[in-house]
C-alpha cells in the first residue's frame, strides 16, 4: 500500500542520514597528516628526544622478548640468531621481562611526561575546533 511505501521510504532515508552522519563524524575525528605535523613539530628537540627514548626502550623490549625481526641483508642470520635467543629466553618469566624495563629511569619518565603533555595539548586544541 501507499502508506507502507511511505513508511519504508522514511526508514530508508533515516538510515541513510544516520550512515552519512556517522561517516562524517569518523572523518572529522581523524586528524590529517598536516594537522599532526603542525601539532608535533619535527624541530621540537625535546619531543624528538622523548620519543626516541621510548622507541629505544620498546625496541630493546622487543629484542629481549624475541619479537623483533628486521628485513634487508643479513635478515636470515638475524632471524636465526633471534630464534636462538628466544629459546634461551623461553625460561624467562613475565616478571623478569618487566624487570628489564627500568620504570624508575627518570629519563623514561620525563620522556613519557613530555609526550603525554604534547598529546593533551593536541587533544585540547582539537576539541576546541
Automatic annotation (TrEMBL):
Protein name per the record: Uncharacterized protein
Entry's PROSITE patterns? IQ
Q: Which GO terms describe its molecular function?
A: calmodulin binding
Q: What is the lineage of its organism?
A: Eukaryota, Metazoa, Ecdysozoa, Arthropoda, Hexapoda
> Which domain of life, per UniProt?
Eukaryota
Which positions are tagged coiled coil? none
